[in-house]
Design a protein that fits this description.
single chain, alpha/beta, four-stranded parallel beta sheet, 282 residues, seven-stranded mixed beta sheet
Length: 282
């Protein structure tokens, strides 16, 4: 027995308690104890190596706080922790994300001369995520165009021909649109017939090719004419939308919800498969 520890003790000191850890969720109403700020969670992001939560009050004003202790949920103190990572759905055994049979032990081939062109970076990332395994087996590279206004000039410079085919995936390719007129002009150019295939989906942007149910919504929000479509979508979701970085982060959230071909609309699936067949069938 250690007699040195004898002496007066504060018997009124409260017993130490462990606060419950609560993963943050969008829509959760919290109170920051120190400032008294009360608001609903609109977003959670990692900044400077720490997680930050944005709380929007009833007047629409927002403030950000670091996750951890110091929050009340329904009047009770909690330890606010990052959301639990969601396990990505796995594809069926022996299948790629596109649903094709996985080729075991197959190394990526050296890139062929044929190419798939898409309008922008987001289109390329979506095609790569779902069809990337198949394209590496075939040796086909996906390249973003950053717009199709000068598609005719780009095709002429590519100089398509037998063994050097070109497949182009265009946004909003509907009758009587600017995109359809550009496509028609390209296909009428010398060397295009049999060597160039231009297909498209009906959506304003490839974002809309993600099925709404995958995102937990009934349908994509309507964006008023004259407003930038992507920033309008992000604003409707309640996500940051003021800068290019906001748009990029918003797209990464959307892309993160896509795991297999089943998460995409059939109108995109069919067009991409059509292009791949065109470039790989002799």
């Amino acid at each position: 027995m250690d007699y040195q520890n004898w002496g007066p003790a504060d018997m009124s000191a409260p017993a130490r308690t462990t606060l419950p850890e609560v993963p943050v969720e969008r829509g959760m109403v919290l109170e920051d104890v120190q400032s008294g700020w009360v608001g609903a969670v609109t977003r959670v992001e990692k900044s400077g190596g720490m997680h930050v939560v944005a709380l929007e009050d009833r007047r629409g004003k927002s403030r950000s706080f670091r996750l951890g202790f110091g929050f009340l949920l329904e009047g009770r103190p909690i330890n606010l922790v990052p959301p639990a990572p969601r396990a990505a759905p796995t594809t069926a055994a022996g299948r790629t994300a596109s649903g094709s049979v996985r080729v075991a032990g197959q190394r990526a081939q050296v890139a062929k001369a044929s190419r798939i062109w898409v309008e922008g970076k987001h289109d390329a990332e979506l095609v790569e995520k779902v069809w990337g395994d198949d394209l590496r087996v075939e040796g086909i590279v996906v390249e973003p165009l950053h717009g199709i206004d000068d598609l005719a000039g780009a095709v002429a410079a590519f100089n398509p021909g037998p063994g050097r085919r070109l497949g182009v995936l265009v946004d909003h390719l509907v009758p009587n649109s600017k995109e359809s007129r550009i496509a028609d002009a390209v296909m009428a150019s010398p060397g295009a017939a049999g060597n160039v295939l231009i297909v498209g989906h009906p959506y304003v942007d490839v974002w809309q090719a993600i099925r709404p149910s995958v995102l937990g919504i009934a349908k994509w929000p309507a964006v008023p004419r004259g407003q930038d479509w992507k920033t309008g979508i992000l604003a409707a979701f309640g996500w940051p939308h003021q800068t290019k970085e906001d748009v990029g982060l918003g797209w990464q959230k959307l892309l993160g919800a896509v795991h297999t071909y089943a998460d995409l609309e059939a109108s995109l699936l069919g067009r991409v498969e059509e292009v791949i067949d065109f470039l790989t069938v002799p």
